[in-house]
Design a protein that fits this description.
The structure holds 2 protein chains of 2 kinds.
Chain A (H helix, E strand, L loop, with lengths): L11 H4 L13 E6 L2 E6 L4 H7 L25 E2 L18 E3 L3 H16 L15 H9 L25 E3 L9 H10 L4 E4 L6 E4 L15 H5 L5 E3 H6 L4 E6 L8 E7 L2 E7 L12 H5 L14 E2 L8 E2 L2 H19 L4 E5 L5 H15 L4 E3 L6 H10 L17 E5 L3 H4 L1 H12 L3 E5 L14 E5 L6 H14 L5 H7 L2 H12 L5 H8 L3 H12 L4 E5 L1 H4 L4 H14 L9 E4 L6 H6 L6 E2 L3 E2 L3 H11 L11 H10 L4 E5 L3 H4 L3 H9 L3 E6 L11 E4 L8 E4 L4 E5 L11 H11 L9 H11 L8 H7 L1 E3 L43 E6 L24 E4 L1 H6 L7 E5 L4 E8 L7 E5 L7 H4 L16 E7 L5 H24 L1
Parallel strand pairs in A: 1-4, 14-15, 14-23, 16-17, 16-19, 17-18, 19-20, 23-24, 24-25, 29-33, 30-32
Antiparallel strand pairs in A: 1-2, 3-4, 5-8, 6-7, 9-10, 10-11, 12-13, 12-25, 21-22, 26-27, 27-28, 29-34, 31-32, 31-34
Helix pairs in contact in A: 3-4, 9-26, 10-26, 10-27, 11-20, 14-17, 14-18, 14-20, 17-18, 23-25
Chain B lengths: L4 H15 L6 H15 L2 H10 L9 H13 L6
Helix pairs in contact in B: 1-4, 2-4, 3-4
Classes of the chains: A alpha/beta, B mainly alpha.
The structure holds iron/sulfur cluster (3 copies) and FE2/S2 (inorganic) cluster.
The site of FE2/S2 (inorganic) cluster has 12 residues of chain A, from loops.
Family (chain A): Belongs to the complex I 75 kDa subunit family. In the C-terminal section; belongs to the prokaryotic molybdopterin-containing oxidoreductase family.
Pfam families (chain A): Fer2_4, Fer4_7, Molybdop_Fe4S4, Molybdopterin, Molydop_binding, NADH-G_4Fe-4S_3
Keywords (chain A): 2Fe-2S, 4Fe-4S, Iron, Iron-sulfur, Metal-binding, Oxidoreductase, Repeat
Amino acid sequence: MIQHFDPSQHDKAFSKDLGTPPPAADAAPVSVEIDGVAITVPEGTSVLRAAALADINIPKLCATDSLEAFGSCRLCAVQVEGKRGTPAACTTPVAEGMKVTTQNERLARLRRNVMELYISDHPLDCLTCPANGDCELQDMAGAVGLREVRYGFTGENHLEAEKDHSNPYFSFDPSKCIVCSRCVRACEEVQGTFALTIDGRGFDSKVAAGQDEAFMGSECVSCGACVQACPTSTLMEKSVIDSGQPEHSVITTCAYCGVGCSFEAQMKGDKLIRMVPYKGGDANHGHSCVKGRFAFGYATHKDRITTPMIRDAIDQPWRPVDWDEAITFAAKRLRAIQSEHGRESIGGITSSRCTNEETYLVQKLIRAAFGNNNTDTCARVCHSPTGYGLKTTLGESAGTQTFDSVMQADTIIVIGANPTDAHPVFGSLMRKRLRQGASLIVADPRRIDLLKTPHLEDAQHLPLRPGTNVALINALAHVVIAEGLEDQDFIASRCDTEAYRAWRDFIAEERHSPEASEAVTGVAADAVRRAARTYATAGNGAIYYGLGVTEHSQGSTMVMGIANLALATGNIGREGVGVNPLRGQNNVQGSCDMGSFPHELPGYQHVADVTARGRFEAAWGVELDDEPGLRIPNMFDAAIEGSFKALYVQGEDIAQSDPNTQHVEAALSALDCLIVQDIFLNETAKYAHVLLPGSSFLEKDGTFTNAERRINRVRKVMPPLAGKADWEVTVDLARALGYPMEYTHPSEIMDEIATLTPSFAGVSYQKLDERGSLQWPCNAEHPIGTPTMHEVDFPIGRGRFAITEYVATEERSNRRFPLLLTTGRILSQYNVGAQTRRTDNQVWHDEDVLEVHPSDAEVRGIKDGDWLGITSRAGQTVLRARLSERMQPGVVYTTFHHPGSGANVITTDSSDWATNCPEYKVTAVQVEKVSRPSEWQRRFDEVDRAQREHLATAREAAS
Amino acid sequence: MSHDQGQTLVNMVNQIAANLSGGRETADTVEGVCSHLEKFWARAMKQRIVACLDEPDCGLEPLARQAVARLAERRGAPAA
Ligand code: SF4
Ligand code: SF4
Ligand code: SF4
Ligand code: FES
């Protein structure tokens, strides 16, 4: 395989610490002279930063360009002509005509004195210190020419201070702390958690986590921002302590959530030492969360599948074979099944974790080599309603903004999303904006952590009953109309008049008033009115939503309701506003864009569209089916019925992530050939006949597309463990099926995508390398991409209001199932947990529990920690109880990160009317105390044990 | 839970019809449901739901039934 050399991946502007953050980009230019060098910078730039831009490097310790200047160390003292004293360069902004001197004898003496004081209370074990080679204190001692320390080390000092190793990923060694407070400020300004403080004053001052406790005991969420900000080895990654400083690095993209953070993967040979969020990353600007920064150990975990395996039946042990044999076996079976049961009897599932290129290839394989449109993706179970709802109203299946746009928002509505846990880096950015004074409205059954943001000014919580989203959004829209808060100009100039009139008549009906819907939603009418006014009159109103919107029987309706509200108030088409789905997995956006859905070719082009289909037919050299194929739940139904016989699943764990587990298991067991390509033996693989080793994001080249339509490069840092990247496996399978695909590098796949997908026409690896990232649409009209959508018009011309009738879900609580179960996720674990469970992130969450309101617990005699049987009409499982008041009475809550918990055994096959996205967020259940695991769990344990033994046997045979 | 595929499909069309009926003319609902099926349903599912028209008590609600009948017409199959 060709290795493309990437000269441009390290942008110099981002590899240097300029000392203080940049001022507003549109600030007026100011010219100054520093050490005789003339330089022009935007107003508001610090002298320190201006000098650094001219490559004049003033010594500094407490300043770093990710944080506001603090001015405490005095090392950056300079002299300014006509001014007395020696001001700190980091806190002194440039002024027109200013003349600055950064080096002279007086300044040198002053700096040496400062350093001397620091060093007199600092251990001198530099040679064996983990920060050796990456220590700013050491560098500064060198820079100022420190030669002697007159105070000696015998006085009172902190050299014996106790270390804190409680966090699994980093250590805290206070003896090395210089109390620069960069960590404290990083935790406040960048992360927004406020877990650290400087305790005490003067000599006694020290850094403390929480109430002076261990990091693990504090509110710390282990984002690592403090570790990155620390100039010394006080806060240090354990991986660096163990392995030493990395020697080279590669810029790549996180493979966990839809924020799509850019990272520098810092390497030693082909060993990944640490992930450092990349300052030049357009989505994250140098910040990250615990998953992306620390939880990469799964990539080299011993459970990784490293050889292909096959078997004739799922109760047999695996047989390790070489790639050729496995691929031939799979291809033969697929063709045999098709000749017996017909062309439509097989299908495949693309992954929202794999790259765009890989997803594109899998759907191409299905459409061109399988000869049908039975392709779907796990986005089906999370954001398919977003696609439907936004395409219907705004004309494009994607969010409208950049993440940075939130910094211009005046009112932020968050519906059914939990950004601080599920999209942490964006959650931090949102918190920053909230601290600056933006208003917050949260519509969620749970009291999410965002409502606990420190220094939050104005927050409204609309604690609606699960399943009543549409009634609530209609009530909000009703207030906008009834109180005349709509943006008439926007509606007149940008929206379809007839659709608007029909919608207006509909929404103005009294039955949509907050007073009328209060009984349904449980939210007080005046709270709804207040929220609607806040949003409609805010200036910039932005809506962010997550799976709490989509995973409902009316998910699509709700998405349209959100779009209606934004259109009616003119909150579309500029910075600071918009409709923003927060995507779950890293490449949910990309997998949808790449034509994973059975009715759409890449770029959301319908299979029945003759022109679009014709382009693909010409390029792919085959005739394509013009009818949509089966969606995942339809595939399952057809499998159970016997008309669907084989499935190729790349990088998804449908047996754990899809609802109504027992139904899924029945469907998978009914298949004659299940081909699973994954990095681990996941739950689905237990039903497989062919197991193909997948590769992690560290082992391949490609692109991911994040929730802001941003295409980011994924770069290979180590060779694939089993020898092949996922796209190569698909290519092999296609060849074995008699449909050769000729690619030597993923860049060629992207080139093909660009020729067939109008919104990607301008995308290429070369341009991505030049620009860092691109937001689609990227084409002749928008050669460098489109940060904000719908600025001038909509892809469908005018915005279309949609009628959004509230239809109550059939999943209602009743006498038998009196409680409503809703599901969600937490920060440290990711989706089905296959990766994060294989890292130290386990210390935060090693089991799924059921959160129960104390009043529901009391009537059932439930105490914290009791085993609870949870029963729905689909099945039963057992989880441990945790009493919590985050939900209202009548609602229980759990996560689904651990397979044995069987959270999806109880979720039903109730689904969104338009897209069949399952209704994870509402299941009627009963809860009672029990003494042992459910029958499903006992069976699960048996199957689990048997399949693990099959794997172990195979491993022995292979070794 | 029932997993007769025909029954599942009937429930799905009824659900689509329920969501596309409020605030609309009957004709729009029928057209909306029919084109939804055309656009999003697989061939086998369409054939199956059309076949349901022959069973008088298959459980299709009136508007859903009209939409399926229209689908049958457009696909050239005789409407029941
Ligand atoms: S790891 Fe993050 S949350 Fe924890 S103390 Fe450091 S900055 Fe704060
Ligand atoms: S721990 Fe590091 S960043 Fe924090 S005050 Fe000490 S030296 Fe500065
Ligand atoms: S999991 Fe999400 S927020 Fe965390 S580092 Fe990865 S992309 Fe960023
Ligand atoms: S770097 Fe300016 S005062 Fe510390």
